[in-house]
Amino acid sequence: MLRLALLGFAVLLTCAGIFCSVGGIPAAFPLTTWGLILLFAVLLERWRYHRPHKADEGPWQETGERFVDPESGRTMRVLYSPSSGERRYVAAGENPDIAP
After folding, report:
1. What is the rounded CA–CA span in Å between residue 28 and residue 4?
2. Could you tell me if 8 and 38 lie in one domain?
């Protein structure tokens, strides 16, 4: 929601700058510049910080940690992927792919 609001504001700011430059108003350059900076920042932010989700990246290793899940009451194991640093929590009875 905030992203869309910022995009809308950036487009309005850029359009106002272009309109002012056509009318010969001296405030045109800052309006257009800041509008374009904000527009590119919002568009590039999603690309720059986007982490592609890789479902089963690399082998999973068991850490030896166990805990009882408060919601289900089941014993959970903690798995760790050294390549991504991600942790996964699985029920003690399940057997996902674990590296030896």
Report:
1. 24
2. yes
